[in-house]
Structure formats: structure tokens, C-alpha cells
Amino acid sequence: MGDAVNILFSVSNLYFILLMVAAIVINYLISTLINTARLLIERKNPNIISIINSITGPLLMFFLNAAYGIGYDYLSLPLSLEASLKHSPAILLIINGLWLAINIIPELLMKIFKALTPVKIKLIKRGLILAGFVLIIILFYAHYVAILASALLAVIFFLIAQKITLIPKPTFAEKATIPKRLITTHLYISTKETHESVKQAIELIKSSICEIENTGENPRASLSGFTPGAFDILIQYYITAPEKIDEVKELVNLNIIKKLNEKNINFSTS
């Protein structure tokens, strides 16, 4: 027992703790620089902001992983535990890479293939998680203690990285104002619908838009006219994240269809 206490409070373990604290401080400084860079980039190319947001967390976690990997050589542990954990830095690095892949690959695919739906994106993410899990099991199946310890450390590092990104930081650039994008479209309701159904449809359209993120406030829907066999509903709303315009429009349209279908309100077929 005395030997275990002496190991725990050894000078080498103090070095390890100081190294991890230094990594957290460096993470804060890096996060501050990224925050400033984000404000500058918003002015020239707002379309890549989502990619920067996707890599920020994994990048901060990588520096924590690197500090752990370097500090592990200083860490003094009982021999049995040290042998069990010797593969943990490598496993942590794989988990870190998996988080980056889950964030960045779907983001890039959405920009390349505009037809990708949220459901397909979820399937891609689940596939990446499964592939990473299988890879870890194949490479380290005999080191379950290291796998469990790495999973726990990954959660801790993830929470630290997320917390750091949320801490208010000084900025060295004035925040750019990204213009909102006005979306105007028409939806045609069958003239077989009653007066009350049309009024209900207009309210459902407004609420459907409000339920989707990045759509601004006070969306408009109104009966703007008549066409053969249809009531012409004018729809207007803002998208406050221009880099996600196609994604937001698709989510809005799908939500409107869902809400109207639930109330058996028919579109015009003319």
C-alpha cells in the first residue's frame, strides 16, 4: 500500500499532471486563435465555416491526446497497470481520428453531393462509428483494459474540448455580419379543400418553418391568388446560415409536406 502511494505522488507523475495542464492552457489559446480566424473567414468565404466548426473539437482533443502520449512516458504506475495501459495512447489516437472522420466526411459529402438527405448522413456516421469500433477490436482485442481506459479518457478529453470551445474568448477581429437569404416559393393547395382547410394549411406552413433551425423569425405564408384547380400560397422566410441553404430548404420542404399530410390537406395536381 505504501509503495502504491509513493508511486502515485512521485515526481514523474507531477510532470505528467503539469504537462496535461499545459495542454489545456494551449488548447484555450488555440481555440482563441480559431475563433478569431473564423470571424475573419466569415467575411470572405462563409461556406467553409461549417468545416472549421467540424474540425475544431477534434483538433483540440488531438493536442490533449498528444500531451497524454508524451506524458505517458513520465507516468509512474504499478507494473501490472502500466502493462495493461501501454496501448492506450494509440487507441486514443484512433478514437480521435474517428471523431474527426465523423465530423468532416459527412460535411464534405454534403457539399459535393447536394442530394444527400439527413437520413443518409446519419447512416454514413453510423457506418464510420462501426468501422472505427471494428478496427479497435481487431488491433487491440487482447487489451480490453486499455480499450476501456481509452474510452473513458476519450470522453473526458471530449468534454474538456467542448468546454473550451464554449468559454468566452477575446477576439482580435470584428465579427462579420452575414446577410440573411430570403427564400420565396409557392405551394398550391387543391381547390377541393375548404376555407378552414386553407387557413389551417397556412398556419401549418408557418409552424413547419419555425421548427427548422436557421430559418430566422416570423416566416410568412398567405393566400396570394388562384390558379386553375389550386389556391396559390405564397411562402417567404429567411435562412440565417447561407452556407447551409440547400440543407435548410430541404428540411423546411419536407416538414411542410409532413405536416400537411398529417392533416390530409391535398396539394394541387394541375
What do you see in this structure?
The protein is mainly alpha-helical and 270 residues long. 65% of the residues lie in helices and 10% in strands. It contains nine helices and three strands, in the order αααααααβαββα. A three-stranded antiparallel beta sheet has the order 1-3-2. Helix 3 (49-71) runs antiparallel to helix 5 (88-112) and helix 5 packs antiparallel against helix 6 (118-140). Mean pLDDT is 84; it is low at 1-8.
Question: What does this entry show, briefly?
Answer:
By secondary structure, this protein is mainly α.
Gap between N and C termini: 84 Å
Task: List the helices and strands in order.
Answer: HHHHHHHEHEEH
Instruction: Flag low-confidence runs.
Output: 1-8
Spatial shape: elongated
Helix count from the secondary structure assignment: 9
Largest sheet: 3 strands, antiparallel
How do the strands line up in the largest sheet?
Answer: 1-3-2
Helix content: 55-70%
Strand content: 5-15%
Question: What value does the Rg take, in angstroms?
Answer: 26 Å
Domain module tally: 2
On the 0 to 100 scale, the average pLDDT is 84
Q: What structural category arises from helix and sheet content?
A: mainly alpha
Query: How many DSSP-defined strands?
Result: 3
Question: Keyphrases for this structure?
Answer:
single chain; 270 residues; mainly alpha; three-stranded antiparallel beta sheet
